[in-house]
Structure prediction request, 937 residues.
Amino acid sequence: MTNTNDDTAQKTKVTPLDDSPDWTFDLLGQYQQEIARVADFYRLDTYTNQIEVITAEQMMDAYASVGMPIGYSHWTFGKKFIQTEQNYQRGQMGLAYEIVINSSPCISYLMEENTMTMQALVMAHACYGHNSFFKGNYLFKSWTDASSIIDYLLFAKNYIAQCELKYGISDVEATLDACHALMSHGVDRYKRPQKISLDEELKRQSERAEYLQSQVNALWRTVPKKAEQKHEKKNIFPKEPQENLLYFIEKNAPLLKPWQREIVRIVRKISQYFYPQKQTQVMNEGWACFWHYTILNHLYDEGLVTDKFMLEFLHSHTNVVAQPEYNSKYYSGINPYALGFNMFIDLRRICEHPTEEDKEYFPEIAGSNWLDTLHFAMENFKDESFISQYLSPKLMRDFKLFHIHDDSDNNYVEIGAIHNEQGYKKVRHNLANQYNLSNIEVNIQIIDANIDGDRALTLRYTPHNGVELGESKDEVLKHLHYLWHFDVKIVQEMKSGEDKIIASCPQKNKDD
Amino acid sequence: MANFIDRRLNSKNKSTVNRQRFLRRYKNQIKKSVSDAINQRGVTDIDSGENIIIPKQDLSEPIFHQGDGGIKDRVHPGNDQFSPGDKIPRPPKQQGQGSGQGDASDSGEGDDDFTFSISKEEYLNLLFEDLELPNLEKNQLDKMIEYKTVRSGFCAEGVASNIDIVKSLQGSIARRIAMSASKRKKLKQLEQELLVLSHDKHDHIQQERALRLEIETLKSKIAKVPFIDTFDLRFRNYAKQAVPTSKAVMFCLMDVSGSMDQATKEMAKRFYILLYLFLSRTYKNIDVIYIRHHTQAKEVDEHEFFYSQETGGTIASSALELMNDIICERYNDNQWNIYGAQASDGDNWADDSPRCQTILEQQILPKSRYFSYIEITQRAHQTLWKHYQKVEDSHSNFAMQHIKSVADIYPVFRELFKKNTQSVA
Prediction:
């Protein structure tokens, strides 16, 4: 692709950077400098980059710890490592070229085995693409604190290691297992959380432990207060349904030990740290792909990289952003890289070369400054809103998107809409919904803790579109019961309007 | 702004702890897998690790997720044939990924059991954990000693062929420097004086002559310092070092007469495997000789040893004789650590048992490190057991145990070696 930059008016010949396949630290530095210059030209605002060169084994380690540079010890990470190692050794899977961590300085890992071209691609992708996304997107800004995450993870690791020494590996492991089962229910979806900061954590940790325990004790004091009050109305606790199960457990579980509360908190905080990443996969990858593509093409236009370099780069690039069709054997859903990359490319096209259709669908942005528009889109959206705002009819045609409506009451599935004039809005609406976390994740809330009675905990499952709760509910409930120590049950409102217990722990007989 | 950090030299086994955690958590399943696997292994096949299979559902990390039913709207790419309103029969469940499974992360795993390999070390550890092997490890069986010549520095005396030229010449230089140093100093000083005199305007013939003479004498004295002296010679020194031999031979003796059924043989096999594993921790090279016998003994390969059935009576002494012959022929007891393990169901021709005792006491036991006898039977002991008991009382390197069921093998194995170590210690 040719770049129409104002400064392609390069006067003299530039000597291209060395394009030999083997990289050296010198070369990395040179490429990095050029990439940084171009990134700056496109106003990419980033955290300082910390680029670490690692081996394939270390990459597998990084994989296993799900992107946390410092992880506490837990068997699930061991399991992931064994799986990764095996898949890799059997050749079923290549390793990712890079891993990047939302922290300040922003840590990215380059794999030793990569060629120079790949390293340049990775640097443009991770160190400037992802990095600027982490720094600019509103979700990351409001949910995570990049400067303190490493410290916090270190604190978590040490704290959990200490607990293991003090209370035994088994108990810590059981607590962590239970927390992991509820991890995706450890986030306040609507409330802005506090940022995690190490200093505060350390200062307040012991204080908090004592305070929390005293609060819990107060809540569960068994001495009856006023007998009359009881008759008048039953104390409802919590006053409003709680969606953040881990938070509720941390603050209110009657028999948890202080260190267990702290572990619940750690898992909750880590869950919160990853929450924005879950919601911006398409955008984040799309943004990074768009920029490695744009930056390297810019370098090519300046004559800084050679044809050889570009061919290798384009080969990798097209593999990454390929979208197999629904009937391909490689199909496994929509590739976020492909969708995101093409949306940003398309967005730029709408700004630079709008068609009549674009003007009709996107009157505000058609013909505007593309860089401003892209930055605005990156900063203020998440996957769901980004798609519903910017997915253009042209892209839907290019992807040949179609919508399937699957109602379990029928013995057939129905094509709801396709990529035509009547279907654009419906397809777009449904695709956007597909990325709406509240549709994907289960809506389950604590509605009652029966503090005056048997302390049984009641949760309510509210189905989305009539989808049942998955089979693992009994297993998860066991974990919840481990943390709560008293009876736990899940109710669901049936079509008849009455509540039915769909799962409980300890398990009750059906006759009860 | 960017910093490059080379982390390649950092430790790469960040996940080792987690891997150990994983093994720890699934110890029971893994142990079961290990002990199942032992039956399928050859006795000497210990270099490989083991594939461990754990049923997938045991490993799951449950989370709340959406299940069946309800209304699901999905968008897919690549429409090639559909128009709005088309009705398509629902594809069969869980087949093909195109039929709209959620993107939920929990569906990422396959349906297979979780299979992975453990290393040889991990395998042995797991196996010996049941055995409480730490007890065994501490007390090694005493081993045959062999001597090996090793270099041990230099000495001033020796045979000519051991002269170390470099060391000798180094000594020579040092000696020459030391012996001529004061003379050279003097020589330098005299030459200086001579130079001063020769530059003087006046003649000092007498003095110059005296100086020249003195210089000559000094030079000849320096020249007389010998280039090499017997004092300089250095010889490579060799010393004998005791090394335990790393060679061992393990004799597996088994009764294959009609009364030994396959289950009994499997039990014996487990015992042999354990013995082999145990020995392999101490010795580098282990030969295994399989001798099976009914009325006659025969040396066979492993497969035939365990899996061929013979009928007829039992004369145990034939196997012991064959073992003794093989030792005399191939395994010199000065060089080999000899171990014997005999398994039987206790049946023996009554008149043969005293003979077994004699062969053991007179021929085999004096040459062997250790000989163990296990009797695998549910019935009462017969003559062989009684005679062997006499051997046990009088010899410390003989041990015998009775095994009734598979579960007995580990404890019995431990017992056998415990007894031995106590008597040795």
